[in-house]
Amino acid sequence: MTSFLPTLKQLQYLVALRDHGHFGRAADACFVTQSTLSAGLRELESLIGIVLVERTRRVVRFTPLGLRMAEKAQRVLREAEELTDMARSAGKPLSGELRMSVIPTIAPFLLPRMLRRLRAEWPELKLYLREETSGIACDALHRGHVDCVLLALPYHCGEVEVAELFDDRLWVAFPASKGPPPPATVSADSIDETQLLLLEDGHCLKDHALAACNRPELRAEATMLGTSVHTLVQMVDNGLGVTLLPEMAIDAGILDNTDVVARPLDADHPARRVALAWRKGSPRDREFALLAEALRGAYQPRSPAAPLADTDISLK
């Protein structure tokens, strides 16, 4: 075996430069100076005798071999981290650091309850949170930037283990009117596609809402411009249309101080499923199962909606 092997630090520099595409930003991510990072990469190139990165004043360009090495280095770094994870999981569970990504349509509504419960049950756990859309969160998971992801299904997150937590029913939110009181539920067929407001691309809640309604024309006609669930509520409150909200947002009081009314969606599959995902083969499987159990107890959805009333509200 050769005695000249890349160090983990050199591999960390290589991966950081690939991820950030800039020496200064990569150095900041590694908590070193730019000159230290640059020198470490030059040492790596000298060690293997091949140029990995072409440097110009304006552009950082990886060679084809440099890109392949960065991909492999990412896997090596992730497995090196798992050595520490193995030792930690063999000791006291859910202690020390854990990095979790949470999607924006869950984070503000579940985290307050979740964090209180986790602090009470696992006081030695240091949970670091990142709020990211599903695609970015799953990519961060596979790159080893986070340990687990709290997201909503269905969503393809790659080769992961999944612990399903609970169903989160979708509700139809619309401006209050002075007419007769609205019925117990709102059917998907009664929604006017030209009045439907949804989150912009990148938010899986948009796809869950469209799938729940099972009306292909909604994708073509709905207005997709909301950047957050709170923004959608404000637009509905100003009479711009109707939208679909997760039940956990309703429970968290998102409609407080508005003139927006919400009723459960009446459809064949009117809910998304909240789940915890982590990498297959992780040595912390047992810890994530414990975490999932704690999360299940952190939120109790409302009881099932009442049967559809005899009179249905029309949102057309």
From TrEMBL:
Is Transcription included in the keywords of this UniProt record? yes
Domain HTH lysR-type: start-end pairs: 6-63
Q: Which SUPFAM superfamilies does the annotation name? A: Periplasmic binding protein-like II (SSF53850), Winged helix' DNA-binding domain (SSF46785)
Do you know which InterPro entries this protein is assigned to?
LysR_HTH_N (IPR000847), LysR_subst-bd (IPR005119), WH-like_DNA-bd_sf (IPR036388), WH_DNA-bd_sf (IPR036390)
Q: Which UniProt keywords apply?
A: DNA-binding, Transcription, Transcription regulation
* One CC-aspect GO term: protein-DNA complex
Say which domain of life the source belongs to: Bacteria
- Protein name from the UniProt record: Hydrogen peroxide-inducible genes activator
Q: Which organism is it from?
A: Alterirhizorhabdus solaris
Q: What is the lineage of its organism?
A: Bacteria, Pseudomonadati, Pseudomonadota, Alphaproteobacteria, Sphingomonadales
